[in-house]
Design a protein that fits this description.
Layout (H helix, E strand, L loop, with lengths): L18 E5 L27 H13 L4 E5 L9 H11 L4 E6 L8 H6 L4 E5 L5 H8 L4 H13 L3 E8 L8 H10 L2 E7 L16 H11 L2 E3 L11 E5 L5 E5 L12 E4 L4 E3 L7 E3 L1 H5 L4 H13 L5 H7 L11 H4 L2
Parallel strand pairs: 1-2, 1-10, 2-3, 3-4, 4-5, 5-6, 6-9
Antiparallel strand pairs: 7-8, 8-9, 10-11, 11-12
Length: 336
């Protein structure tokens, strides 16, 4: 007798869940000022989910109708044997859309293997095209390695999205350079409004709003707005660039939230479920997953219960006290 598939995931507001961001590590070889600006305790080896446990969670997600999993960190390649884990995930879940978010510093040697493993989209964080500014933002002089990773991924046939946190006084003078890069290469350049996350150095005057970026970009290039594609572009509003091989994207968590169409869940490398990036309410999955009498059935129950209270991040943002982060957790520990 064929097994009955589990009911698909939906939250209390009717939003269907089809996308899981799964962090494989909270460690990173960079110290970006907006991501991990303060020293903090790292997870111990015991507290980090084992690769086999991550695969179990992916299997559960697939059974619940989640077709897209993005592997994140920290920096995924900072974890030993990450490439082998990704190849195992592809072998076990041949029909799943596997994607990767990375800082790019360790990626170039693995580009061909990523493509062979069916990773057809890679998001690379790159906030500046100036090596000295890169070193100031990240604490490391590794700009050249990121550019090498972009070229290697493109050469391997992987679609590359470059994510840049938009910050006044940091990279707001670099828009011409980013547009030139999008004309030259088949990449999506996506500016993300600087969010007040916990542990990061954030000031309101540093926020470079998407409306200001768009106004300036329209002077520098002829842009054509593209229809929103939740599957491909996610929350980004995309624009074609006349004469360009790439595109410009704007992600607006502050000025024009997209909470009403949120389709994602986040599980940290420590086995904590977060239903909203801006919420500190978490649900601990690791203990249930490792319990000999509980396991995945209990994890699924926790996930379904959590979805009964999935918040609207925009309401949390509006309610925060002036000068404080939306959540107390650093972005690197959440998985972005």
């Amino acid at each position: 007798m064929a097994s009955v598939p589990a009911p698909r995931l939906a939250d209390d507001k009717g939003r269907q869940v089809s996308y899981l961001r799964l962090s494989v590590t909270d460690r990173c070889n960079l110290r970006c000022l907006y991501c991990d600006g303060q020293m903090r305790q790292r997870l111990t080896h015991h507290d980090v989910l084992r690769y086999e446990e991550l695969l179990e969670l992916m299997g559960m997600a697939q059974a619940l109708g989640i077709g897209k999993v993005r592997l994140t960190g920290g920096e995924p390649f900072a974890r030993r044997d990450f490439m082998e884990f990704l190849e195992s995930a592809r072998a076990r879940f041949p029909d799943m859309s596997l994607r990767l978010t990375t800082n790019g510093t360790l990626v170039a040697p693995y580009a061909a293997r990523l493509a062979a493993a069916g990773v057809d989209r890679v998001n690379i964080s790159l906030d500046t095209l100036m090596p000295e500014t890169f070193a100031r933002i990240t604490g490391q002089d590794l700009y050249a390695e990121v550019r090498r990773a972009i070229d290697a991924c493109i050469g391997a046939g992987i679609r590359v999205k470059i994510n840049a946190v938009a910050m006044r006084g940091v990279n707001d003078l670099e828009l011409p350079g980013f547009l030139a890069l999008a004309r030259e290469l088949p990449v999506d350049i996506r500016f993300i409004e600087f969010m007040p996350m916990g542990g990061a150095e954030w000031r309101a005057e540093q926020v470079w709003r998407a409306s200001d970026i768009l106004e300036k970009a329209q002077v520098l290039a002829r842009l054509t707005p593209l229809p929103r594609d939740a599957e491909d572009a996610g929350p980004a509003q995309m624009f074609a660039i006349e004469g360009g091989r790439g595109r410009l994207g704007l992600i607006t968590p502050l000025s024009n939230h997209f909470c009403g169409s949120c389709n994602r869940l986040r599980i940290t490398s420590g086995g904590v479920l977060r239903t909203c990036l801006f919420s500190d309410r978490v649900y601990r999955l690791r203990e249930a997953l490792r319990h000999p009498k509980l396991g995945l059935p209990a994890v699924e129950r926790i996930v379904r219960l959590a979805l009964r209270n999935k918040p609207l991040g925009a309401e949390l943002l509006a309610a925060r006290r002036s000068g404080q982060g939306v959540s107390e957790a650093a972005m690197s520990s959440i998985g972005g």
